[in-house]
Every structure is written in structure tokens, then in C-alpha cells.
């Protein structure tokens, strides 16, 4: 399956994990994130997101990560990103998964 | 319940107005720094070192605040404040670490100045918990209480705290710098895996002095600290440490983060050359300015106060009776209770490792209960051990049954201290931004597999230590059984080592074989234990059996199915 990319950051004021939905628009849930099929488009979006996040004091540690679609929903390739998108596997009552 | 008034607790250093003003000023400085960051006046690059100097990290899910518990000792009042902060600003719990500190995992940057302000109300802070400075000095969790204690390490740890906190030469070291002090015959502080390990002792005249080990450390390149001086007199304690830090500051590498710790410097210079450099610096420094005057030591010691022990019979009839009538309690006493220096008293360790639980985690309610029990039974004082447990150090033997009953009712009565269920584990990939694999689920699975307390007691002392990455916060290198989480193409694997030893006979464990999956790891641990039990002689420790039979039988058994 072709790899997709999404862009993520931690929100500056509270550290919340956020995902880029559109230019200058960040969301808290991976399901709503923009998915990039094209690497060049992902790179361009990442550069813009980094600049915007710093300019607006919105987010820190902005980067892109790999994912696929599983049952039509974004599924990060690495455990690290799955855990960031959901919450600690040892406390399923906490994090984004708790509100799912 | 009769709470002891704040400040009247035993064994915790009492701040004066200078200490309080300094901590309060730091809070206000950080408040202004956060405001400047949120307004865009500071970039992240400019702000990051400032937040790290105040213990604030960015982890996977949120900011993490590491609160300092200097040398692992805190008052019941301070513990209640931690519980309160956990409830008010976090998610109702905290995580006690292998550095005797406490971490909150769900912190908001915008609330951090207020959290630090609340901590300052009880003489707490997050200084020296991050950054390239001298970190919180650690020591024996039984300090001031242990029967085998020769020197009270708290006094010297506090002297180092005061010496290093604002020392201009030590604010921007090549890397972080960890010091551990031990003052008993048995090393409970793992001093030889620290940048500097200090072994406090007495000579034939009864004078206090120190052996210094340097260049220890785990992480990517584990090294065991080398003895660089057998005896440093008390008055030269600060001068000698300053000499070590100066040599490190001058020669330590700043060009490569992986080679910046003092262990690499000691290794590359060689023990002899490093020692010669330190001695040369020491000779220059020695003099009135650096002399640690006995009056200063006496004053610091006085500020710790200390419980006045009642004259009690060495053996408590009430304790013996309670043990005879309750098998679970008798086991807890055998496993979790240690001899106290004062007759009729005992040191009780509260395990934060329930079977299947998260090592080191405590809820706000549990923290409050421990604070109440500390007031009721242990002079209002609590310790955090580097093994991620809590300790009530001054409990009357007569009170042990009541204490255990209260602990048991709150899920804190697990009898496994030092046993296979007492697993050290870092937060791993469930929380940590540096981790490659999860540590906690494996610790939970292993402790659940070995949940039977009788079986644990039969196996005897056996330390399992788990790290989720090569930075080794879980001390896996020195676990009798060590487990290192690794990432292989996005999948978590676990590399097992055996033969590590954190005590003065320090040893780094050897890799047993290829890394295994999470499911295989629990079976592998069980196989190692079975080989040990099948081969051990009466009373023989795991390490002694391993030394006698070699790695072969363990390796064959673990990889038998391959």
C-alpha cells in the first residue's frame, strides 16, 4: 500500500498533539488531518506549516510522518505516531483515545 | 488524624529565607520567560534551554514537568502538594523516577509558572532536573535510618545542592552531570554508574572522608566509574568535586553529544591521566576559599533536624504476634521491611510495583494516603528510592501491622521489594519522545506472570530493569536481567542482557542473543528464571549462579525453539 504523509506538531501553549488540516488550520484528531500522497507536496506543506507555527506561536516540533489507510482511516506506520495519535497504550483512559 | 505541623518533620532540610527568595525569584523569571514565548518575543530555539532549566520537557502527548526531590527526601506536606498538583494540573497521578524525582506527564506550558509557584510554597522546584548542569544529587533511600549507615549522605548531598545550583562554572557543562552519594556498607545508590560516585566513610580516628569514583554512566556507551581517590578529607569535599568538574569542563567534548559525558573523557584520557589532571587542579584549589568548615557541616546537619527515637525493646512483641497471625503481613515484613539503626524501629518500603501495574506511578489519592501515614507513623517524612518505590524510614515496629493494613487497603501493600516483580522501568514509548519501544507493558506482563508472592520469595532477589531506548533511564545495563527496547523497522523488539550489577561490584550485563518480540520476552524471562532455579546452590544469588554455570544454559534455554 502506498505510503501517505501527515504533518503533526505539539501545540505551544499546552503541548497537545495536533495535525495539519489545511494551511494554518490544525486539528486535534488524526482522522481530520490532511493526507499527502505526493512527497513534494508534503515537503512544501511541512515548510509552510513550520513557518506558520513559529510565526503565530502556535506549535512546536513540527514534522511529517508516514501512514497508510486502514479501513479507510489513517493508520500511522510507526508505533510512536500511533501512540501520539491515541494516547499511552497503558492508560487507555487518557489521551485522545479516551474521548474517542 | 494528627498531622505534624509543617517544618517540624524529621530529616528534611529546612529552607531559610534566602533559599525561599531564590526559588521564588526563579518562578517569576520563568513566568516572564513563558509570557515572552507565548507572545512571540522568544523563539522556540531561544526558549527551549530556559524551559529545560526549569524541568519542563516536551514529550509525546504534552509537556512533562520533572519536579526535583533532592536526594529523594520529602515531607508529608510536600507530598500532599504533589498530589494536589497532580489532580489540579495533570490527570490525577505522577511518576516516580530512577533519579528519585517525580514527573507529571500532562502539563500545559501556560500553567507551568503557577505550578512552580505552588511548588515554591512548600520549598520545592524543578531546578537541576534537566539541562547540562549538575543534576539532583541522589543517595541511599534509607539514609539516616539504616542500621549499616556509617555517614549520613543527606548532609553532603545538600552541601552539593547549595554549591552547584548557581555555580557559574557549572551552568553550561558539556553535558548533564549526575552525582550519587552512599554512606553505608551496602551500595543502595548505584554510585558507580554515575558521572561521579561518592562513597562516604570514616577512618580509624572516626573522621569523615570520601572515596571518589568518576566516569561511570550507562546510555549508549556504558562505563563503570573508576576509583580516582580512596580518601578525601571532609574539609576538601567541595574542592575535590570542583576539581573534577573543572577538568571535565575544560576537556569534555562539546562537539559531539554522544561523546560529551565525563565517562568518555575518563575513558579517552585514561584513569591515570584523568586522575593526575584532577589532582593538579585540586592542589591549586585547595585552600581557605574551598575549605568545607566543620561549622558549615554542623549547621547543615542541624537544619535536617531528625527524629528523637523513643527507647524501645529491640524486638516488638506486637509485631511478632501480628506476623504469627497473618501470613501476608509476615511476608511483607520479610520482604519490604529493613532494620533500623534505633532499637524497636523499622524502615518500611512501599512498593509502587503491584502485579500488572505501572512501575513508579502513584495516584494523587495514594500520595495523600502515604503523606497521612508518614505523619502518623514516620515523623512526617517520605523517601523516593531510585528503584521507584517510596519509603517510610522511621516506623515503630509496633505500628507496622497498622501501617501495612492501611497500605494494603489502598493497593500499596505489595510484598516484592528487591524481588522479580520490583521492576525498574522507564516511561518508554508510551510517554517519552526519545524512546524506541514501550517499557511499561513489558514490565506489567512480567510482573503479572510472576504475581504469586510465594514464588517471588522463592526466586529471591532478582532485579529486572527495562529501558525503552539506549539512553538507559531504566538502568537495563545493570539489571541482573536487563531489557532494552529497540525499533526494528517500526516494530518493537527487546534485547535481553544478563549479569548486570548496580552495587559496588558493578557489572554491565552481557547480551544473551538476538532481540525477541514482546510476547517472546516474557517467556524468555521465565526461561532464565527456570534455569537459575534448576542450577542454583542453596542460598546462591542469580549472579553467583550465572558466574558459576556461564551464559550457555540460559542462552540454550531461551533460544531453544529457534
TrEMBL record, chain A:
<dbReference type="InterPro" id="IPR021270">
    <property type="entry name" value="DUF2849"/>
</dbReference>
<dbReference type="Pfam" id="PF11011">
    <property type="entry name" value="DUF2849"/>
</dbReference>
<protein>
    <recommendedName>
        <fullName>DUF2849 domain-containing protein</fullName>
    </recommendedName>
</protein>
From TrEMBL, chain B:
<feature type="domain" description="Nitrite/sulphite reductase 4Fe-4S">
    <location>
        <begin position="130"/>
        <end position="283"/>
    </location>
</feature>
<keyword id="KW-0349">Heme</keyword>
<dbReference type="InterPro" id="IPR036136">
    <property type="entry name" value="Nit/Sulf_reduc_fer-like_dom_sf"/>
</dbReference>
<dbReference type="InterPro" id="IPR006067">
    <property type="entry name" value="NO2/SO3_Rdtase_4Fe4S_dom"/>
</dbReference>
<dbReference type="Pfam" id="PF01077">
    <property type="entry name" value="NIR_SIR"/>
</dbReference>
<keyword id="KW-0004">4Fe-4S</keyword>
<keyword id="KW-0560">Oxidoreductase</keyword>
<feature type="domain" description="Nitrite/Sulfite reductase ferredoxin-like">
    <location>
        <begin position="63"/>
        <end position="122"/>
    </location>
</feature>
<dbReference type="InterPro" id="IPR045854">
    <property type="entry name" value="NO2/SO3_Rdtase_4Fe4S_sf"/>
</dbReference>
<feature type="domain" description="Nitrite/sulphite reductase 4Fe-4S">
    <location>
        <begin position="423"/>
        <end position="558"/>
    </location>
</feature>
<protein>
    <submittedName>
        <fullName>Sulfite reductase (NADPH) hemoprotein beta-component</fullName>
        <ecNumber>1.8.1.2</ecNumber>
    </submittedName>
</protein>
<dbReference type="InterPro" id="IPR005117">
    <property type="entry name" value="NiRdtase/SiRdtase_haem-b_fer"/>
</dbReference>
<dbReference type="GO" id="GO:0004783">
    <property type="term" value="F:sulfite reductase (NADPH) activity"/>
</dbReference>
<dbReference type="Pfam" id="PF03460">
    <property type="entry name" value="NIR_SIR_ferr"/>
</dbReference>
<feature type="domain" description="Nitrite/Sulfite reductase ferredoxin-like">
    <location>
        <begin position="358"/>
        <end position="408"/>
    </location>
</feature>
<keyword id="KW-0411">Iron-sulfur</keyword>
<keyword id="KW-0479">Metal-binding</keyword>
<dbReference type="InterPro" id="IPR051329">
    <property type="entry name" value="NIR_SIR_4Fe-4S"/>
</dbReference>
<keyword id="KW-0408">Iron</keyword>
Amino acid at each position: 500500500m502506498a505510503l501517505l504523509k501527515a504533518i503533526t506538531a505539539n501545540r505551544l501553549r499546552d503541548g497537545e498533539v495536533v495535525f495539519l488540516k489545511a494551511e494554518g488550520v490544525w486539528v486535534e484528531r488524526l482522522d481530520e488531518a490532511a493526507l499527502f500522497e505526493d512527497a513534494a507536496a508534503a515537503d512544501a506543506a511541512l515548510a509552510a506549516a513550520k513557518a506558520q507555527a513559529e510565526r503565530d506561536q502556535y506549535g512546536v516540533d513540527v514534522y511529517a510522518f508516514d501512514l497508510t489507510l486502514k479501513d479507510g482511516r489513517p493508520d500511522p506506520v510507526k508505533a510512536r505516531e500511533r501512540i501520539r495519535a491515541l494516547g499511552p497504550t497503558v492508560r487507555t483512559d487518557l489521551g485522545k483515545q479516551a474521548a474517542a | 488524624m494528627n498531622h505534624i505541623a509543617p517544618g517540624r518533620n524529621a530529616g528534611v532540610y529546612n529552607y531559610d529565607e534566602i533559599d525561599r527568595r531564590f526559588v521564588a525569584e526563579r518562578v517569576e523569571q520563568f513566568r516572564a520567560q513563558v509570557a515572552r514565548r507565548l507572545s512571540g518575543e522568544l523563539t522556540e530555539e531561544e526558549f527551549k534551554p530556559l524551559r529545560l532549566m526549569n524541568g519542563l520537557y516536551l514529550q509525546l502527548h504534552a509537556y512533562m514537568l520533572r519536579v526535583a526531590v533532592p536526594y529523594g527526601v520529602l515531607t508529608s506536606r510536600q507530598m500532599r502538594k504533589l498530589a494536589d498538583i497532580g489532580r489540579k494540573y495533570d490527570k490525577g497521578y505522577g511518576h516516580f523516577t530512577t533519579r528519585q524525582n517525580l514527573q507529571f506527564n500532562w502539563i500545559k506550558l501556560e500553567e507551568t509558572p503557577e505550578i512552580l509557584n505552588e511548588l515554591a510554597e512548600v520549598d520545592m522546584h524543578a531546578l537541576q532536573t534537566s539541562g547540562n548542569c549538575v543534576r539532583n544529587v541522589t543517595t541511599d533511600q534509607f539514609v539516616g535510618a539504616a542500621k549499616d549507615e556509617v555517614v549520613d549522605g543527606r548532609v553532603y548531598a545538600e552541601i552539593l545542592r547549595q554549591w552547584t545550583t548557581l555555580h557559574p562554572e557549572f551552568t553550561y557543562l558539556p553535558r548533564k552531570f549526575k552525582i550519587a552519594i552512599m554512606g553505608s556498607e551496602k551500595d543502595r545508590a548505584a554510585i558507580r554508574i554515575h558521572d561521579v560516585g561518592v562513597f562516604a566513610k570514616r577512618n580509624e580516628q572516626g573522621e569523615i572522608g570520601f572515596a571518589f569514583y568518576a566516569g561511570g554512566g550507562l546510555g549508549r556507551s556504558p562505563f563503570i566509574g573508576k576509583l580516582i581517590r580512596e580518601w578525601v578529607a571532609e574539609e576538601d569535599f567541595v574542592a575535590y568535586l570542583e576539581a573534577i568538574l573543572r577538568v571535565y569542563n575544560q576537556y569534555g567534548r562539546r562537539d559531539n553529544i554522544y561523546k560529551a559525558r565525563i565517562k568518555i573523557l575518563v575513558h579517552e584520557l585514561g584513569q591515570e591521566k584523568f586522575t593526575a589532571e584532577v589532582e593538579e587542579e585540586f592542589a591549586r584549589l585547595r585552600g581557605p576559599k574551598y575549605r568545607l568548615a566543620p561549622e558549615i557541616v554542623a549547621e547543615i546537619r542541624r537544619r535536617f533536624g531528625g527524629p528523637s527515637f523513643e527507647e524501645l525493646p529491640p524486638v516488638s512483641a506486637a509485631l511478632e504476634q501480628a506476623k504469627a497471625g497473618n501470613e501476608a503481613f509476615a511476608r511483607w515484613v520479610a520482604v519490604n521491611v529493613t532494620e533500623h539503626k534505633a532499637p524497636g524501629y523499622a524502615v518500611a518500603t512501599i512498593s509502587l510495583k503491584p502485579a500488572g501495574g505501572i512501575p513508579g506511578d502513584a495516584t494523587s489519592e495514594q500520595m495523600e494516603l502515604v503523606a497521612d501515614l508518614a505523619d502518623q507513623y514516620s515523623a512526617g517524612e517520605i523517601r523516593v528510592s531510585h528503584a521507584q518505590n517510596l519509603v517510610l524510614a522511621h516506623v515503630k515496629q509496633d505500628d507496622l501491622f497498622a501501617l501495612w493494613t492501611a497500605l494494603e487497603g489502598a493497593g500499596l501493600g505489595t510484598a516484592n521489594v528487591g524481588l522479580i516483580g520490583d521492576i525498574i522501568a522507564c516511561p518508554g514509548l508510551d510517554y517519552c519522545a526519545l524512546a524506541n519501544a514501550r517499557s511499561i507493558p513489558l514490565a506489567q506482563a512480567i510482573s503479572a506472570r510472576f504475581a504469586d508472592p510465594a514464588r517471588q520469595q522463592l526466586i529471591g532477589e532478582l532485579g529486572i530493569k527495562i529501558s525503552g531506548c539506549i539512553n538507559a533511564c531504566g538502568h537495563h545495563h545493570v539489571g541482573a536481567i536487563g531489557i532494552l527496547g529497540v525499533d526494528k523497522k517500526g516494530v518493537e523488539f527487546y534485547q535481553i542482557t544478563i549479569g548486570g550489577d548496580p552495587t559496588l561490584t558493578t557489572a554491565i550485563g552481557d547480551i544473551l542473543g538476538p532481540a525477541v518480540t514482546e510476547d517472546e520476552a516474557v517467556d524468555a524471562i521465565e526461561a532464565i528464571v527456570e534455569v537459575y532455579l534448576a542450577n542454583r546452590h542453596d542460598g546462591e544469588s542469580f549472579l553467583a549462579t550465572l558466574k558459576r554455570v556461564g551464559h550457555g544454559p540460559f542462552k540454550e534455554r531461551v533460544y531453544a525453539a529457534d
